[in-house]
Amino acid sequence: MPLRRLLAALAALLVGAATLVAVPTEAQAAPNFKAPFPCGQRWTYSHHSQEVRRALDFVRSDGGTTNGTPVLASAGGTAYRFSQPGGAGNYISIEHGGGWKTYYFHLSAYSVANGQAVGQGQQIGVTGSTGASSGPHIHYEQLLNGVGQNIVINGSGLSYPGSYGSAHLTSDNGCGSQPGKQFMTWGSGIRVRADARLNATVVGTLGGPTSVRVLCQKQGDTVTAEGYTNNWWAKLASPAGFMSNIYIDDPNAVLPGVPTC
Prior knowledge:
Layout: H1 3-21, E1 42-46, E2 56-60, E3 70-72, E4 77-84, E5 89-97, E6 100-110, E7 116-118, E8 123-127, E9 138-144, E10 147-148, E11 152-153, E12 156-157, E13 168-170, E14 183-185, E15 192-193, H2 201-204, E16 211-225, E17 228-237, E18 243-248
C-alpha cells in the first residue's frame, strides 16, 4: 500500500476511535425555580391537553384577583419581550443559562425592558389575558435546550391536574429579598385601616406614620366600613416589637410580598 494511502487509512481509524470514546456533555443543573407570583399568595394550577410542551396555568385561589397581579421571575437571568396576538399574547422569556429558560404568557403589560437582566423575585410583568386566552392566568413553562420539562418549584415537582381547584401552590418568591416588600409605610399607596384611626393613640404607639413590618396576613372577620368590605387582616410589628392587628383596605385583598399567617 502506498504510504499516502496508509496514512489516510490510519487517520480515518483515529477519527473513528475518537468518535467512539466521546462522552456526551452533562446536562446543566436547573436553577432553584420559585413560583412566578408574589410571596404569600396561593394559586391553583392545571394542565390541559391543548397546552404546548409541559406548561401549567396558574390562577389565584386565596381570594385575591388574578388579573393585574404581578408576575415574578422564578429565577434570575436575562428577560426578553415578545408578542404573539394569536397565541401567547404578550409574553416574557427569561434565559437562565445552562440551556434553561422560562416562559410567562398572556401578560397585560411588561415590567422590564427587552434584554434586561432580572433577579429572582423581580416583577417582570402583569397578569392578563392577551393572545389566545379564555381568561386571566399565568401560563408558565420551564425548558431545557428548547424542550419543555416537568415543572419543579423549590426542588419539588408539581402535579399535572386536568382542572383547577385540586392542586395549590403558595409562593415564597421574593419573601424578604426585595427592599420594602415586607414593610409598609402609611400613605405609600397601600391603604390600611385599624379598629382605631391611624392617628389614634393605640396606633400611634407603632411610631406614627413611619414604616412598620407586616409580619403576615390572613382571613378573619369581615369588616365593612366607609366604602370597602374586606376580611383580610395583617399582623404588624414596630421596631420596638409592639404588635397589633390591622385591617387591610385594598381592592385586591392581599398585600403583595407578605406571607400568610
